[in-house]
Amino acid sequence: MRTLLIKKPIAQIQSETDGCELRRSLSALNLVSLGIGCIVGAGIFALVGEQSAQYAGPAIMISFVLAAIVCVFAALCYAELASTLPVSGSAYTYAYATLGELAAWIMGWLLILEYGIAASTVAVSWSGYFVSFLKDVGIVIPPALTSPTILYNADAAQAGLKAVSFVNAFDLPAFASVIALTGLLIVGVKESATVNNIIVAIKLLILVLLIVVGFPHISAANWHPFIPEHIPGTERYGWPGILHAAAVISFAFVGFEAVSTAAQEAHNPQKDMPVGILGSLTICTVLYILVAAVLTGIISYTQLNVADPLAVAVDTLHISWLKWLVKVGAIVGLFSVMLVLLYGQTRIFYSMGRDGLLPALFSRVHPRLKTPHWNTAIVGLVTALVAGFTPIDILADLVSLGTLLAFAIVCFSVLYLRYTRPDMPRVFKVPFYPVTPVLGIISCVWLMSGIFNMMTLLFEYYIPAGLLIYFFYSRKHSKMRKSII
Questions:
Q1: What CA–CA distance (Å, rounded) separates 76 from 397?
Q2: Confidence tier at 340 by pLDDT (50, 70, 90)
Q3: Per-residue confidence (pLDDT) for residue 427, from 0 to 100
Q4: CA pair distance 245, 450, nearest whole angstrom
Q5: Nearest-CA neighbor of 483 among 93, 21, 9?
Q6: Element (H, E) at 164
Q7: Most buried by CB count within 10 Å: which residue of 127, 282, 425, 483?
């Protein structure tokens, strides 16, 4: 039991930061751009349509507000921890320093959902826009090469019926997009950050154009009823639907957390990390709400359950140049989201490999490129395969549950560290302590209840599987455990 609760000393974490092999090449602007690049993605280009059509209706705007409020609580906690412990492991390392090794492993296992599986989710969304774009120019890819192998029926799952079936198909564009980005990340983080900055500028410009051009075409009739009547026995519409949509789209805000994974490659992490985290979250929250208002205002929410909802909505305006811009923006923009998510996952595995909880291969850095090349290749291949086989609805629900649970643990870590190490220097402190982290924990758990149909899969299968790996491999190879035996 003592080894399960062993904590990684703060001094050791800070010394590892000083002696890190990774190159410090990211400024505060790069970090804000990194966050925006990840946040403005599947949530606004794909999930906003699906969640509006199936669960929230025009009240998807309320769902975004609820998700943003929850994420603000978590973001403030992340900002404090990132400025105090500026390391690549993000929430995994925070848990190691505060709650012990077992909690750190569980956090690392959850972060696979938050990053790796999230990257697969975005790849599936990207595939939908890419296939639609090719169709517009006369290139049609057979459905067997653009559809997932696994099909999922949410209504059947809620009714206790068989919800999963298999077909002879594979989403090749989703698979290929992840493989391409994996190669870019192996080349180097500075090069990846430059590409990301360009992509962020493009998609922000396109979304602003959509808001400006679409706003005069909003029809109040499309917002009626603003909150569709709840369907009894389901999570569809009404306040249960709003809560469900808020829980699912909360993963679309995960970009602010991805900023914290870049701490060891930031110029001045103690000052720059809070700027990157809070700056990106603020900008994107405003943008999300405005786009959701325009989207549901220019077309009925019942028509938005498609792979490319923004393009479908803009098509009703009969402005061909804007439709093309939106599709290109989605294709390019979602690419940057996958880039950041894959980057975050590799840096978490890098830290876990260095601690011995994963094989040393994950912490091996290329002597010339200064990137964890084997780690990146493995993460990229697995993520690509998941994207090719699995539909977006299963992936989005799992990602959201894992993300919210990870957020709650981070909020608790702030409480624990403030109590046990009140003397530790903190460049940024959570305001209204301890109210903010407590509200963060409560609100995360509340949103998790909105995806009840996936709770069984997470707590009865996914987390126990992670615990088996920990006890049969990670615990035996833990460097911290070996140091006290």
A1: 24
A2: confident
A3: 72
A4: 8
A5: 9
A6: strand 164-166
A7: 127
The shares of helix, strand and coil residues in the chain, as percent rounded to the nearest 5, are 75, 0, 25
User: By CB neighbour count within 10 A (0-12 exposed, 13-18 middle, 19+ buried), where does 423 fall?
Assistant: exposed
Q: Which stretches of 137-254 are DSSP H helices? A: 154-158, 172-187, 189-214, 238-249
Q: How far apart are CA 207 and CA 291, in angstroms?
A: 7
Q: In this structure, what is the dihedral angle of CA atoms 149, 154, 158, 163, given to the nearest 10 degrees?
A: -20
Residue closest to 91 by CA, chosen among 439, 77, 383, 2: 77
CA distance 343 to 261: 8
| Three-state secondary structure call for residue 424 | coil
SS3 of residue 267 by DSSP? coil
pLDDT band of residue 469 (cuts 50, 70, 90) is very high
Per the CB < 8 A criterion, the answer to whether 447 and 243 are in contact is yes
Confirm if 62 and 230 have CB atoms less than 8 A apart: no
Residue in the structure block whose two tokens are 């909690």: 103
Please tell me the predicted confidence (pLDDT) of residue 15: 67
Q: Which of 475, 196, 155 is nearest to 344 (CA)?
A: 196
How many helical (H) and strand (E) elements, i.e. helices and strands, does the chain have? 23, 2
How many CB atoms neighbour CB 112 within 10 A? 21
What is the amino acid identity at position 196?
N
**Tokens 């990840």 sit on residue:** 38
**Cα–chain center distance at 181:** 16
Extract long-range pairs of 60-63: CB within 8 Å, 24+ residues apart: 60/242, 60/245, 60/249, 60/292, 60/296, 60/301, 61/289, 61/292, 61/293, 61/296, 62/227, 62/242, 62/246, 63/242, 63/243, 63/245, 63/246, 63/249
Q: What pLDDT shows up at residue 196?
A: 63
User: Cα–Cα distances in Å, from 247 out to 156, 165, 293?
Assistant: 20, 25, 19
Neighbours of 372 (CB within 10 A): 28
**Structural domains present in the chain:** 29-480 (1.20.1740.10)
Closest CA to 432 of 409, 413, 414: 414
